[in-house]
Automatic annotation (TrEMBL), chain A:
Cofactor(s) the protein needs: pyridoxal 5'-phosphate
EC number: 4.2.1.20
The keyword Amino-acid biosynthesis appears for this protein: yes
Pfam family, one: PALP
Stated name of the protein: Tryptophan synthase beta chain
Modified residues (N6-(pyridoxal phosphate)lysine): K99
Family per record: Belongs to the TrpB family.
Domain of life: Bacteria
Keyword field contains Lyase: yes
Pathway(s) annotated for this protein in UniProt: Amino-acid biosynthesis; L-tryptophan biosynthesis; L-tryptophan from chorismate: step 5/5
SUPFAM superfamilies with a match to the protein in the record: Tryptophan synthase beta subunit-like PLP-dependent enzymes
Coiled coil: none
TrEMBL record, chain B:
Keyword Lyase: yes
Stated name of the protein: Tryptophan synthase alpha chain
UniProt superkingdom: Bacteria
Subunit structure, interactors included: Tetramer of two alpha and two beta chains.
Gene: trpA
Pathway as given in its UniProt record: Amino-acid biosynthesis; L-tryptophan biosynthesis; L-tryptophan from chorismate: step 5/5
Function of the molecule: The alpha subunit is responsible for the aldol cleavage of indoleglycerol phosphate to indole and glyceraldehyde 3-phosphate.
Active-site residues, Swiss-Prot/TrEMBL: E50, D61
Keyword Lyase: yes
Originating species: Labrys monachus
Length: 406, 275
């Protein structure tokens, strides 16, 4: 995290004011600005403090269970008959997804700043569960905002959060999904700014969140480098990850951005298809300003935000992290998309071939692997970020299959 | 500062009384009703009119103003139609200052340059854009000042003495002091703390200081007018619109009088104080 920046690097962003090219920034109400500036200062100090890293490193090993394995998916590779596919097993982390990496970092920062109350927003519930878990571990009060629609479709996670002592507030405004949960969390923060730390779950929001969350998640890519060198003696040829806000993807991608030989793919949720309801902000949106940053957004001609749709509650957001918007504009990362149907197919394929039930989110990445891998040579090394496990999605998926008589 | 705002605050100062600043949402529940309310506001006692530009995701506003914005959007309100409403109002009133209040994205999508030209031409005097702090002044604040529109900034209880000069640097028209840490229409402010904050701000600027968030009654308005140069009322008026609608959310004959009567009552409180 403290390595010296290189010139002509894709890894130097953001600038002092939090911009990645035209994206990013700090578009928030004045009430929040003093706190955001003090958070930026606290993070600047923490990231160069060896004691902070030492403590976090201990928790990552003994509590989270890192490093997560880089697993050669032998049967999936055989089945597809092309690239050699490795899965970065973030679903084996404590709480079942990559979210815990970032939450640990932010909770340690909140403790440093003396904030006893933590708020979070959550879509699928994975970030909410991770936040509730670490608040329990460190004895902090936890309030999680979740769209009422998501509360309905992710009940297992709602129950988990409550068992962990968190208060879950169903959000009834707007489309009742992640975007509205984020609005409510911001309102809470504006109201309780004196004692509250807002633990944002993805690489979005006002600066310094996109950079800070990316840094905490970059452990995924750093481990992958080492593990791939140990397994194959060289770097991978391609990386692929699903994108809602894009934190699991940014965590995997960032340490490889300056390796020109590594091709990088992000996969957005195409929902019912890009001409119908979807959540693909880059493929179907344009630059705008929401939730504290400028980034690609789904909106109408008058700049009103449109509702996103994805089968996966974790990808169901009308925006994307600003660094992804920039990486798209400069052409370093290729952004693809996968529909609900393709994700469901991939969900089943991985379950049956590897005995790994993926979350619906990374099933979107697997869906593009199914298409890309067969066209690639057998010595091509591909890493897929398996960002979460599918336990939370089993009831929803089984309901869909039952309704179709499968 | 634009001439209408300057003239209005100078006249109020000469009269030794505080301004009543009234907020309504453009197009809530329809453009025709908004036009009638606008036309009646000056006679009801509004000294400055703030018009909300509806946005789907108003993160600093409470449920009342959010619901008003969604009613307006459902009725087809757009930024262009809001500017047209101001233009129509100006045909009958060239003295009452008008301020547009909202969030940045609709303006950004409309195009900043085009927006400033059209707003000026329609007769807009100033802007309040909640999600543009001084750190993002290049986006709209500086171009607005160059175009002759006031850029009114919010100062809040979290804005300490160290930050205040940053907040005031490019502020014009007046300073809008947010009386609570919270969203619009939530808690009732602590009037003693508000008075102290207003005098603190006045040590840093010669601009008028108006106070809003949580003002619902003539008594609240009177308490704030003791120390401030103006009182802002918003959620209470939007709530009056909502309470007057029929079951389908349409305006009724009661809608316009409900808002104007409430403005008249609050104006009595705001104007009762002679300084």
């Amino acid at each position: 995290m403290t390595e010296a920046p290189k010139l002509n690097s894709f890894r130097n962003g953001p600038d002092e004011r939090g911009h990645f090219g035209q994206f990013g920034g700090r578009f928030v109400a004045e009430t929040l600005m003093p706190l955001i500036l003090s958070l930026e200062q606290a993070y600047k100090e923490a990231r160069v403090d060896p004691a902070f890293h030492k403590e976090m490193g201990g928790h990552l090993v003994h509590y989270v269970g890192r490093p997560s394995p880089l697993y050669f998916a032998e049967r999936l590779t055989e089945h597809l008959g092309g690239a050699k596919i490795y899965l970065k097993r973030e679903e084996l982390n404590h709480t079942g997804s990559h979210k815990v990496n970032n939450v640990l970092g932010q909770i340690m920062l909140a403790r440093r700043m003396g904030k006893p109350r933590i708020i979070a927003e959550t879509g699928a519930g994975q970030h909410g569960v991770a936040t509730a878990t670490l608040c329990a571990r460190f004895g902090l009060k936890c309030v999680v905002y979740m769209g009422a629609v998501d509360v309905e479709r992710q009940q297992a996670n709602v129950f988990r959060m409550k068992m962990l002592g968190a208060e879950v507030i169903p959000v009834q405004s707007g489309s009742k999904t992640l975007k509205d949960a984020m609005n409510e969390a911001l309102r809470d923060w504006v109201t309780n700014v004196h004692d509250t730390f807002y633990c944002i779950g993805t690489v979005a929001g006002p600066h310094p969140y996109p950079a800070m969350v990316r840094d905490f998640q970059s452990i995924i890519g750093r481990e992958t480098r080492e593990q791939m060198m140990a397994a194959e003696g060289r770097l991978p040829d391609s990386l692929i990850a699903c994108i809602g806000g894009g934190s699991n993807a940014m965590g995997l991608f960032h340490p490889f951005l300056d390796d020109a030989g590594v091709e990088i793919f992000g996969v957005e949720a195409a929902g019912h298809g890009l001409s119908g309801l979807h959540a693909a902000s880059i493929a179907g949106g344009r630059p705008g300003v929401l939730h504290g940053n400028r980034t690609y957004l789904l909106m109408d001609a008058d700049g009103q935000i449109e509702e996103a749709h994805s089968i996966s509650a974790g990808l169901d957001y009308p925006g994307i992290g600003p660094e992804h918007s920039w990486l798209h504009d400069v052409g370093r990362v290729t952004y693809l998309s996968a529909t609900d149907e393709e994700a469901l197919e991939a969900f089943q394929l991985l379950s049956r071939l590897e005995g790994i039930i993926p979350a619906l989110e990374p099933a979107h990445a697997i869906a593009r692997v199914i298409e890309l891998a067969p066209k690639l040579p057998r010595d091509h090394l591909m890493v897929v970020n398996l960002s979460g496990r599918g336990d939370k999605d089993v009831p929803q998926v089984s309901e869909i299959f039952e309704s179709r008589g499968r | 500062m634009t001439s209408r705002l300057t003239a209005r605050f100078q006249a109020l100062a000469a009269d030794r009384r505080a301004a009543l600043v009234t907020f309504i949402t453009s197009g809530d529940p329809d453009a025709g009703t908004t036009a009638k309310i606008l036309a009646g506001l000056p006679a009801a006692g509004a000294d400055v009119i703030e018009i909300g530009m509806p946005f789907t995701d108003p993160m600093a506003d409470g449920p009342a103003i959010q619901a008003g914005g969604l009613r307006a959007l459902k009725g087809g309100m757009t930024l262009a139609k809001t500017l047209a409403l101001v233009g129509d109002f100006r045909k009958g009133d060239d003295a009452t200052p008008i301020i547009l209040m909202g969030y940045y994205n609709p303006i950004y999508i409309y195009g900043v340059e085009r927006f400033l030209v059209d707003a000026k031409a329609a007769g807009v005097d100033g802007l309040i854009v909640v999600d543009l702090p001084p750190e993002e002044d290049d986006e709209l604040c500086l171009p607005a000042l160059a175009a002759g529109l006031a850029f009114i900034r919010l100062a809040t209880p979290t804005t300490d003495d160290k930050r205040l000069p940053t907040v005031l640097r490019n502020t014009s028209g007046f300073v809008y002091y947010v009386s609570i840490t919270g969203i619009t229409g939530s808690a009732t402010p602590d009037f003693g703390a508000v008075a102290a904050a207003v005098s603190r701000i006045k040590q840093h600027t010669d601009l008028p200081v108006c106070v809003g968030f949580g003002v619902r009654t003539a008594e609240h308005a009177r308490a704030i007018a003791e120390g401030a140069d103006g009182v802002v009322v918003g959620s209470a008026l939007v709530e009056a619109v909502r309470a007057s609608l029929d079951a389908e959310g349409r305006a009724t004959p009661a809608t316009v009088p409900a808002v104007l009567d409430l403005v008249a009552r609050i104006a009595e409180g705001a104007h009762a104080v002679r300084k």
